[in-house]
Fold each of these.
Amino acid sequence: MTTLHRSSPARGPYQRHDKRYRDPVLHLNLGGRRCDTEDWSLGGFRASGFWSAAAVGQFFDGALLDEDDRVLGTFVAQLVTPGHRSAPARFRFHRLSNAAFDLLQSYVLRPQ
């Protein structure tokens, strides 16, 4: 499992440490709920249609899924903002399995 660390916090609500990607859309099982990403990076993601009453800072177990809902890799993510009906919840990756990290990295490194 890969644990991710940040050297400094973002300076504003929309400053990102990593480039955000919309393609491909990642299919997730997040805390037992199926959802897709609105955008993602190696640092975290926004879960489209996912909002939670959970406390900010809570950890969720998750999995990256293929089109047939087979697990491609697992992760632990921390809730950054709970979201609401019109805004997706935001998560920070805390741990990525080697398979999940390799998959995300392959998407980042693919030719555009």
Amino acid sequence: MPAHPFHADDDLATLASSPLCHVSACPGCGVVHLSLPSLTLRFEPAAFHEVARLLGQASRALGGNGAVEAPLAGEAAAHPGTPPRSGWH
């Protein structure tokens, strides 16, 4: 991926947001920013689509409906088919 200048938050268009993360894109260069509390990953659009596809596949393997959304803290009991985290390595 070619080097891109860092963008001020004001320059980015919000694509989606939750209490866990925020996804935005630069309208000028198209780079997609996946921001977590202590980390921001930057993707070219095609790479972001591939990561999203892979996360959907992993979600289905865990018994989810294929959506990339995970339950928020405290909602795990609402998904009885999901194994506890300690069971995964």
Amino acid sequence: MADKLVFATYRCPVEAIEPCGEIKHCNALLNWFDHHCVELHSSGIIELTKETLVKLSCDLNGLSAANCTEVFPTIRNFVHGFDEYDETYWQQVYQLRQWCIVQLAETDFTAQRLFLQASW
């Protein structure tokens, strides 16, 4: 499906790359990475450091209806993902919060590397 925005994440021990999650249709996440880390391009892979995940987690935990357009804005009129601040947006925020909690708890950043690949 050509209009899909998908973020695939991987843990990378020295021996193998292991998929560890997918986040679909969240253009606010693409926007967040573009403004806080590096501009993502389709099929580009970036390393997610512990510091990056902590920053993302803090931003997500501090979100409210009053500040979401400033802290975690969507990309308006972007053909991939949703750009409204509706129930779908808040479900994605909740899922991302949970994903960050799991990654921060389960990833041994001294022995593993965590990567993100965006594709659209």
